[in-house]
Amino acid sequence: MTDLSHKALDRFLEISPKREKDGVLREFMDADLGPAEIFRKILDRYHFATSSLEKILSEAGYPAPLLTLYHDLFREMERNLSMVDTDDTRFDFVIVTPVADRPRHLESCLDSLLQLCRLFQYGGMQNGRFKKISVVIADDSMQTENIRHNRELVERYQGKGLDTEYFGQREQREILDALPKPLRSRLNTIVGNHPPHRFHHKGASITRNITYLKLNGMRRVHDRTLFWFLDSDQEFRVSTLDSKTPVYAINYFHRLNQTFSNPAIQVLTGKVVGDPPVSPSVMANTLLEDVLALLSHLEKLEPQQPCPFHQSAPKERGESYHDMAELFGLNTANAPFEYPCPVEGRHSALDCLDDFASRLNAFFDGQHPTRQTYYEYRDFTETLTPARTVYTGNYVLTPGALQHFVPFATLKLRMAGPTLGRLLQSQLRSGFVSANLPMLHRRTVDDTGRSEFRPGVEHQGAIADLAGEFERQFFGDVMLFSMERLVGNGYPQTALADAAVRAIVAQTEQDLSATYRQKRTQIQHKLKRLHLFLSDATNGWRDALPGTTAANLNGFMQNMEFNFGQNAKGYRLIREDAHRRQRLEQIVAAIRQLPDEIPAWQDALSRCG
User: What is the pLDDT, as a whole number, of residue 144?
Assistant: First the structure.
């Protein structure tokens, strides 16, 4: 084994603490070991080196030379593994991306995956192709041009060495049509019942479930394959407090292979950094808190004073972007967050406000300008904890876990991941885990400041109407917190009386209505304060504002009033009696049906295997 290279390992040892230099890493390999033992020792040595370097990287602020060494170590490891005459029994990965009319997001996602594969080369390459990585694009788009573009992306990345398969509407229908009609009817609540001419925008949950059937039937499925589901508006890198641009600081495949080597684990979920993973419907209160704090600070300054908003962002941020984080037992902020001004060079407080105002209306497509989240290094093994929420934009499952379909898919409610998570928590227990493996989440595209497509959000000129998303959020919360109570009573393994289910759903809806009303009162109080700033003739800032800044601030105010003010359509919709009764009846019926859906799904999987 004299041909094994260890130049990158030697470079690491030059910067590593003395205790590591004096350890077993100096003794690179014994010539008389068998191939399988050498394979294991290579993995052990590089795993130790890269894990140590991850800590060094975080402490140093992710400088480019150390990131390059980090990537070099993994590529050197892969080259050495390929020279060992033994089977590589590490996991294969199928990356699954449901997409609906987001071709630019999808392209950025695939670009980042290709870059990740090139930097780390997990599993190595054969005949110019990555051996252990493949991609399935599950297309739920409506626009013909976007469908064409997605097909072209599949061909492009296939040509770049990344096995990529297009799973479009025709292919999805073929899988469903192959099922016996009686069974197909029993699956309507799981995979929908859409006619061929409207087989689009079925929803992410339905698309995922249909894709589960495909994955279960793929010939390559075996015990050493993992399925990684992610959203098209995510990328395989992270933003950090120290790096100005996102970095490839995690070898996800290596870490996931390490984790799933424990056969008890069936589902793992990561999180996201960057834009929050929740709806603007439940972030308006925190945003207004920060907007008012910034404006209050600015009122004490002269517009041309140097910008003071360049303090380091707080490291412990938690899920403080969520107006109702306390409902989830999550960390909440006790004070406003300061705007981390990104303007470089010498500039004034007025320049900062101009930049801030230009970003505000992207909030209605999911950005939160003051409460972005960042990747924080922690020893990976210490981050593995029992989970209760599936982040549907970042979760990995074994072939056996395909039996756990996304429930209540046809209701198209938000919070599908947390609801699924509560069920997995009750059924898998320690087999369902979370880990510090976030992905970069980018809700909008740069040149428009908008998402390409968001179900339930309609742009009408300058107005972003959130009513549809708001309604899906509220009743999704009703489903989620009803599920928490139901699972506590033994559901779905234990049959519950219809009256008991109805009582739980009704009480949950009442509790959440009170919480939403409380938050709305707080939002409206803050909107009045914002209105005073923009209309007060004695405010010296008002006359100093450039036209575009004033227009952006007024547009933001107009959108906030439209979506959270006295006549907001979303609030009217969730309180309208007929609609409310219909939604609650749908939720009760879906809960009642789930135990009967489980054996039908098992039957479908057996036929697609």
Answer: 96
Residues 6+ apart with CB under 8 A from 400: 266
Place of tokens 């072209």: 152
Determine the number of helices (DSSP H) and then strands (DSSP E) in the chain.
21, 15
DSSP labels, 302-361: -TTSBP---PPPPS--TTTT-TTGGGGT----SSPPPP-----SS-BHHHHHHHHHHHHG
| Segment 417-439 mean pLDDT | 96
Q: In this structure, which amino acid lies at residue 271?
A: K
pTM across the whole model: 0.93
* Contact between 215 and 96 (Cβ < 8 Å): yes
Crossing angle (nearest 10°) for helices 349-360 and 284-299: 160
> What distances in angstroms separate CA 343 from CA 149, 249, 340, 347, 356, one per listed residue?
35, 25, 9, 8, 10
pLDDT at 22: 47
Q: pLDDT at residue 24 above 50? A: no
Q: Which residue carries 């998303």 as its tokens?
A: 469
- The residues that bridge with 459 in the sheet, in sequence order, are 464
**pLDDT for res 20:** 53
Q: Are 367 and 242 in contact (CB under 8 A)?
A: no
Question: CA neighbours within 13 Å on the CB side: how many for 187?
Answer: 24
Q: Which H or E element spans position 99? A: strand 92-99
| The pair of three-digit structure tokens given for residue 314, joined into one six-digit string | 């707080």
132: nearest Cα among 224, 40, 56:
224
